[in-house]
Amino acid sequence: MSTQQQATAERRTGTQGMINNLMEERRQMLVLFCQVAGLEPYARTESLEQLLQNFCQVLVDYTAFGHFEVFGKISDGTERRSQVLHVAEEIYPGFVEATETAVAFNDKYDISDHALSFDHLSEDMSLLGEEIAIRIELEDRLIATMLAR
Fold this sequence. Notes:
By secondary structure, this protein is an all-alpha fold.
């Protein structure tokens, strides 16, 4: 195997590992999202507060992974395939919008620095769910392009 072929194989292995990690982060976030959503109508309980806290942490981890790992690889020049760069550029605005919604949700419902109000949790979960669905569609487009040979 030539040095060029070996380098390409190593990059693809790294890409596959990164995608596997992203998918695991996504899976964990979706499981917790469904658990929180399944508790509606929301009544203040310690278990809901703890579940919401866990969800916020995983949501932030998932959101950060997409930005710092996936788009970080693209923006730092590690990814050189023009089709991947084109798709990344195309989806980035929607990706940022979904991220901003997730960060706003976390800021509102992370109980580490303020008391919680559940008055708008149902609406906020609905909006977040819509943005997560959009983000997943965008991620899947990028992933498909990254995995294309």
